[in-house]
Amino acid sequence: MTVNLKKTEIIVFRNGGPLRNTEKWTLNGVHVEVTSDYKYMCLLFTPKLSWTSAKLKLAAQSRKAINAIKRYQLPFGQFSHTDMFKLFDSMVVPILTYGAEIF
Fold first, then answer.
1. pLDDT tier, 102 (very low <50, low <70, confident <90, very high otherwise)
2. Taking the complete model, does pTM exceed 0.70, yes or no?
């Protein structure tokens, strides 16, 4: 197996503060970049394992889905409450509950 070092990044989980000067990561003598956040399966991981940024990103995606539902109403007129709940359950709830087991 070969590792593409141009696409490879490392995240160091710690309680905070900058990386020490002695923390240099290499693979086969080539420097590997350290990142401050890492996206894995649409969830955002940070060095402190804080879920704030992940929750904010999911909330923003949910707002986009709610706005899409509102745009769908324009050509059809006002949806009934039942239809609105169905659209919410099918378009917004999956975004909000994605990765909820981890939180």
1. low
2. no
DSSP E strand boundaries for the chain: 9-10, 26-27, 30-31, 33-34, 38-40, 43-45
Provide the domain count of the chain. Answer: 1
Q: Tell me whether residue 103 is in a domain.
A: no
For residue 68, being part of any structural domain is answered with yes
Range of the domain at 67: 9-97
Q: Please tell me the number of Cα atoms within 13 Å of 66 on its side-chain side.
A: 8
Kindly list the distances between the CA atom of residue 12 and the CA atoms of 19, 23, 24, 48, 71, in Å, as whole numbers in the listed order.
8, 10, 11, 9, 42
